[in-house]
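haha ok so turns out i had the wrong file open the whole time. this is the CORRECT one, sorry everyone. sequence first:
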Amino acid sequence: MPFTSFIDYLKFERNYSQHTIKAYKRDLECFYDFASKEFGYSEITSVNYSIIRSWIVSLVDSGISNKSINRKISSLSTYYKFLLKIGEIKKNPLVKHKVLKTSKKIQIPFSETEINEVIHLLENEEDFKGVRNKLIVELFYSTGMRRGEMVNLKLKDVLLFQKTLKVLGKRKKERILPLLPSVIETIKKYVDLRGSLPAVKDKDYLFLTAKGVKVYETLIYRVVNSYFGLASEKVKKSPHILRHSFATHLLNEGADIKAVKELLGHSSLASTQIYTKNSIAKLKQVYRNSHPRNFK
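then structure:
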């Protein structure tokens, strides 16, 4: 079942990324396979909630996490809302569905000491890969950008004269991020080395492999994971944790949460507020140490 019109809707009207669209398509195909094999449905526009509930039970039995199941159901719900919108169905079978409970995992940011240790490790890098990796870490920590945004950065997005960087975020929403002087210096050094590559295929993109092609998300992850593996014992050492650290450290230093929201490219303040939990811990410590009624 191709879901062609729905995929076009996600791509052209909702401006979803290719990665997100593939996830939606994969989730829908998963449900279609279940409905057709277990209940003989040739299409899923006419299924009722009992079929969906059976699918959920089978997913739970297979050991898939509640978080992943909720994502799959969210994809299916979006599809039914689309069918409702274009008049293909009269009722969304998921209208009364309640999401499965999930345990909230605390994202622990890197400490400033860990960040500084990694930056120190990268200080003396001189070759193409080393300087590129240094720039990757510095950009994540100084701008808070997403991994996908970094992969798709283009040379024309680097506005050195204005000391800014243009980023294309989710749903193709553009934002301008300031660049620190130290990061600008690393960019200049990297661009010089980039120009010395023997062959460049993806000329428009800022970050390239040594073979001159656009970097990919797994490579970016490996760079962050490998360097922070030398400085941190935290279980999770990913680009998202660096983004988390950027936001947390700004809030710790008194940055306005609305400004942090704009820097991160969040559509709502609620998304940014998750980063305030670590900041509150520091505020409590300051309060305990400074309040005149705190008798020691």
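The two ends are 70 Å apart (CA to CA).
again sry for the mixup
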